[in-house]
């Protein structure tokens, strides 16, 4: 197929539309037995017109997914230690370190050292567990926000919220990142009595208790009480103060009070 | 985690001829599946079993005791490396469907795996996620459904920061979505759409590509037009998708391919295309088309057709929307460079992927049908002759080329004067000898328009044995009236 040489130049030049030649239709055009009429054509999803392109698309996907499934050798580097104070985890691959860091050191509550998978969940946690004003206000109005991203519903109690998440959002009743606030106790440790049972079910319960309690990867499930290890939090003192003061601002706004803090 | 593909090449583990043969087989299987409306199926997405994944050690099938053992070790081992290794062994075993079945039948197994997935040990979490990913590849919906307890966590992790992990979660979700309607029915209330809308803001190319994949699978679900697309159009996903399709230095081809397909599935479902137009989709897609045409000259074989195909489809379908007319100049497509780009792509298709020629010509039809300006561009850019050169490719292509030429001719004598004299008439005479009735019919239509607006052409037609060419169709039911009428016109004016 020979294209006119000026075509590429036209592509490279600026935008523009051709000044249209005058249109003058003769009514005899398209008159019986002829039937041509210029028509826009539309094809719906499953039309067979799309068959060839769809097949090519799937051939491509097959290749992609096969490569995704293949685990390439990760480049090994000389062993190094996590630099976060108190964490001694050792790595020999950068990808491992990245995941470790984001999982355990990134969204960490500076009060209780729990790590969360996202800022969203960390913020909810701080508000609900460590903010005393929140507790006071929640007696009067619905403060417990649904944890599902995009849902703006609020509830009186964390139980109500959990019911909502289970009923409406089909979340598991034991969703790991929605623990009701309770004191830590020996219940969180591996209960020796249960080890007799070989069923995996029991083990599941125990690791549930371990989730998020500690930030250091060093704590094996059977070791010393939770909380002994401390991990340096991402958040500095001024961050915490800002967080608290923003909370207070928010709460005061909710109450309709202003104290001239608009400068914030 | 996973290296981005080097181009589109696979490591060659067998001879080139064998590869070609296998590809033909895969293609045949996909074609059959599509005709049966079964194209969105896991079985077809991952064509090779574990034996074929070159490089990986082939693992043995695991029995129930071994699965149990590995899980216990992963959960309660004292040495971290030991726990990790247990999960690696489990994952390898899970490449086999039998092991997958064993796993899901073992009581408490998924619960344990989810426990590890959400544990405080990052590397165990990663390995657990890989096991889950392996399960997501299963061709059996029972296995996909067994993964339901994990989905809320997979979605939660999309808001995290570990890009490799997020990528893994997305591919896992995409696989699960394909396999089971039960999974989709759960994912929607669990907030998959807002989760994706948040995740699409990630700067990581690998994450975006994985997200595009997952989204494209979601959009292909049969219930998508009613249940899924409306909420997607109601979220910020649309704006982000269009942004990711903007041509320029930041455009990543792998990412663009995924989202172009997503956009195609949305548009051809006809849910709310006016909204899409109001976001400037026509302009974005038009510019992207220009970009692609420019790339054709520069890049040897980058799989451009993979991106060109959905872009052409989106443009063609969008042009049929009434909104295009209503919204006036701003949102319309008026730039004649689009025509230039389209022809560059048609030439490219002719060499690389002839099966895409009809799709390119479809766009050309929709550009020219109601647009004197684009018809004029075809003439002024000297594109009639190249168009005619496509006639011999196939009946479908001939039909569409003739339709486009009719679009031009029907606009009147100013247009027909530029169609004849020229190569058009000899080409038409050849087309009259075609065996396909529809092709001949369209040739007759074009001849009628030509004779009407350019009467001298009828004379030339006679001189070039046009009557004989018409004669062979005197008996054909669909054609005889028109053939006869043309004969009369040619002879008597």
From TrEMBL, chain A:
Protein name, per record: Zinc finger protein 511
InterPro entries, per the entry: ZNF511, Znf_C2H2_sf, Znf_C2H2_type
C2H2-type domain boundaries: 82-105, 109-130, 146-169
Top-level taxon: Eukaryota
Automatic annotation (TrEMBL), chain B:
SMART domains referenced in this protein's UniProt entry, alphabetically: ARM
Keywords: Membrane, Transmembrane
Protein origin, superkingdom: Eukaryota
Keyword Lipid biosynthesis: no
PANTHER family: TRANSMEMBRANE AND COILED-COIL DOMAIN-CONTAINING PROTEIN 6, TRANSMEMBRANE AND COILED-COIL DOMAIN-CONTAINING PROTEIN 6 TMCO6
Protein name stated in the entry: Transmembrane and coiled-coil domain-containing protein 6
Provenance organism: Tupaia chinensis
């Amino acid at each position: 197929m020979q294209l006119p040489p000026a075509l590429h130049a036209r592509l490279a030049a600026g935008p523009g539309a051709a000044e249209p030649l005058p249109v003058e239709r003769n009514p005899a055009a398209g008159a019986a037995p002829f039937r041509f009429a210029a028509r826009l054509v539309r094809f719906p999803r499953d039309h067979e017109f799309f068959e060839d392109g769809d097949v090519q698309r799937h051939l491509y996907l097959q290749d992609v997914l096969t490569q995704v499934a293949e685990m390439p050798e990760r480049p090994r580097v000389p062993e190094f230690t996590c630099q976060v104070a108190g964490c001694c985890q050792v790595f020999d691959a950068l990808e491992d370190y990245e995941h470790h860091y984001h999982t355990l050191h990134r969204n960490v509550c500076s009060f209780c050292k729990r790590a969360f998978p996202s800022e969203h969940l960390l913020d909810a946690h701080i508000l609900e567990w460590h903010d005393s004003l929140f507790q006071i206000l929640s007696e009067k109005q619905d403060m417990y926000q649904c944890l599902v991203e995009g849902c703006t519903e609020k509830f009186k109690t964390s139980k109500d919220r959990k019911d909502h998440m289970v009923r409406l959002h089909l979340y598991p009743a034991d969703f790991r990142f929605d623990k009701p606030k309770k004191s830590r106790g020996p219940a969180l440790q591996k209960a020796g009595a249960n080890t007799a049972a070989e069923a995996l079910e029991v083990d599941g319960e125990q690791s549930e208790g371990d989730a998020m309690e500690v930030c250091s990867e060093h704590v094996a499930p059977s070791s010393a009480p939770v909380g002994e290890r401390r991990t340096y939090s991402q958040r500095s003192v001024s961050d915490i103060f800002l967080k608290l003061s923003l909370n207070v601002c928010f709460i005061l706004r909710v109450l309709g009070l202003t104290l001239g803090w608009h400068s914030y | 985690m996973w290296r981005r593909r080097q181009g589109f090449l696979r490591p060659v583990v067998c001879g080139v001829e064998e590869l070609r043969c296998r590809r033909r087989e895969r293609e045949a299987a996909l074609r059959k599946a599509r005709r049966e409306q079964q194209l969105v199926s896991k079985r077809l997405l991952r064509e090779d079993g574990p034996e074929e994944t070159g490089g990986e050690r082939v693992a043995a099938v695991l029995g129930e005791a071994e699965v149990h053992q590995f899980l216990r070790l992963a959960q309660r081992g004292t040495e971290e490396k030991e726990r990790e290794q247990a999960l690696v062994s489990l994952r390898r075993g899970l490449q086999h469907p039998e092991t997958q079945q064993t796993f899901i039948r073992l009581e408490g197994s998924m619960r344990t795996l989810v426990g590890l997935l959400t544990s405080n040990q990052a590397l165990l979490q990663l390995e657990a996620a890989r096991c889950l990913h392996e399960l997501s590849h299963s061709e059996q919906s029972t296995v996909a459904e067994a993964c339901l307890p994990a989905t809320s966590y997979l979605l939660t992790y999309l808001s995290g920061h570990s890009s490799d992990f997020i990528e893994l979660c997305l591919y896992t979700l995409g696989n699960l979505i394909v396999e089971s309607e039960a999974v989709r029915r759960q994912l929607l209330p669990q907030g998959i759409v807002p989760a994706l809308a948040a995740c699409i803001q990630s700067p990581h190319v690998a994450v975006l590509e994985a997200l595009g994949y997952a989204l494209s699978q979601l959009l292909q679900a049969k219930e998508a037009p009613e249940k899924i697309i409306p909420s997607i159009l109601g979220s910020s996903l649309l704006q982000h998708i269009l942004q990711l399709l903007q041509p320029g230095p930041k455009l990543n081809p792998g990412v663009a391919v995924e989202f172009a397909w997503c956009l195609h599935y949305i548009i051809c479902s006809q849910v709310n295309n006016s909204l899409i137009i109001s976001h400037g989709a026509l302009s974005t897609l038009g510019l992207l088309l220009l970009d692609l045409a420019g790339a054709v000259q520069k890049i040897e074989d980058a799989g451009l057709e993979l991106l060109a195909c959905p872009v052409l489809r989106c443009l063609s379908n969008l042009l049929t929307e009434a909104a295009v007319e209503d919204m006036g100049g701003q949102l319309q497509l008026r730039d004649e460079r689009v025509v230039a780009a389209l022809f560059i792509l048609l030439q490219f298709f002719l060499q690389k992927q002839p099966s895409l020629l009809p799709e390119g010509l479809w766009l050309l039809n929709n550009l020219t049908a109601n647009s004197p300006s684009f018809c004029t561009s075809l003439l002024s850019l000297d594109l009639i002759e190249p168009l005619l050169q496509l006639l011999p490719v196939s009946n479908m292509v001939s039909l569409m080329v003739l339709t486009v030429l009719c679009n031009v001719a029907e606009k009147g004598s100013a247009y027909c004067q530029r169609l004849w004299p020229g190569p058009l008439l000899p080409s038409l005479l050849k087309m009259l000898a075609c065996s396909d009735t529809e092709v001949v019919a369209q040739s007759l239509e074009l001849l009628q328009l030509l004779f009407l607006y350019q009467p001298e052409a009828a004379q030339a037609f006679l001189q070039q044995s046009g009557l004989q060419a018409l004669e062979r169709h005197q008996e054909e039911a669909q054609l005889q009236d028109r053939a006869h009428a043309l004969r009369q016109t040619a002879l008597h004016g």
